[in-house]
């Protein structure tokens, strides 16, 4: 990434991507664009933008000092948008699942969130988000004499578990 690349990872320059939103020249046209621009605001330390894009009635618990510390003392490593549900130009609500990777205090972290957005008077607002916790993987061990998991009806050792 060069100094001109947009931090949100779109592959565009900051001026062509999140820059107009961060500078107030235009509102983000979609929920995903707002989420990407908010990530870029964290990277660039634009705390005012982060606060200004919160739905006004949710700003009571905005902790400027904490957000400034987190944004300023983190090394932002990248953004991965996992999914978007609604949130388009013609929608009134939307959800964006993303992972923001960063280092803080010398340790790597991943902030995985499902964010909710609402559009009012033609402008998208961040409402809130839920932290997505990874589901633990479970591995089922198949015994040699158990039925094969492929559904053949044979014992595992005589089917998929046989020496090849």
Per DSSP, what share of the residues sits in E-state strands of 2 or more residues? 25-35%
Helix count equals 4
Secondary-structure content class: alpha+beta
Strand order in space, largest sheet: 1-2-3-4
Helical proportion, percent range: 10-25%
Give me the strand/helix succession.
HHHHEEEE
Largest sheet: 4 strands, antiparallel
Roughly how many Å apart are the termini?
47 Å
Question: On the 0-100 scale, what is the average pLDDT?
Answer: 92
Radius of gyration: 22 Å
Number of strands: 4
- Any low-confidence stretches, pLDDT <50, length ≥5? none
Shape call: elongated
Short précis:
The protein is of the alpha+beta class and 164 residues long.
Search tags:
164 residues; alpha+beta; 4-stranded antiparallel beta sheet; 4 helices; 4 strands
Folded structure, characterized:
This protein is an alpha+beta fold and 164 residues long. The protein has helices spanning 19-22, 31-44, 47-52, 64-72; strands spanning 74-86, 93-104, 107-120, 123-131. A hairpin with a 2-residue loop joins β3 and β4 (123-131). The longest helix is centred in the first third of the chain and has 14 residues, at 31-44. It is elongated, with a radius of gyration of 22 Å. The protein starts with 18 loop residues before the first helix and ends in a 33-residue tail after the last strand. The mean pLDDT is 92.
């Amino acid at each position: 990434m060069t100094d001109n690349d947009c931090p949100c990872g779109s592959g565009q320059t900051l001026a062509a991507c999140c820059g107009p939103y961060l500078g107030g020249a235009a509102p983000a046209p979609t929920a995903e664009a707002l989420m990407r621009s908010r990530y870029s605001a964290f990277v660039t330390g634009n705390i005012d933008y982060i606060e200004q894009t919160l739905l006004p009635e949710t700003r009571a618990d905005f902790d400027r000092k904490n957000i400034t510390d987190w944004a300023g003392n983190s090394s932002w490593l990248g953004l991965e948008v996992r999914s978007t549900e609604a949130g388009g130009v013609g929608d009134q609500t939307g959800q964006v699942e993303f992972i923001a990777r960063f280092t803080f205090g010398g340790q790597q972290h991943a902030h995985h969130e499902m964010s909710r957005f609402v559009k009012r008077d033609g402008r998208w607002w961040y409402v809130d988000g839920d932290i997505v916790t990874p589901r633990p993987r479970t591995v089922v061990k198949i015994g040699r004499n158990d039925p094969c998991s492929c559904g053949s009806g044979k014992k595992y050792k005589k089917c998929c578990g046989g020496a090849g």
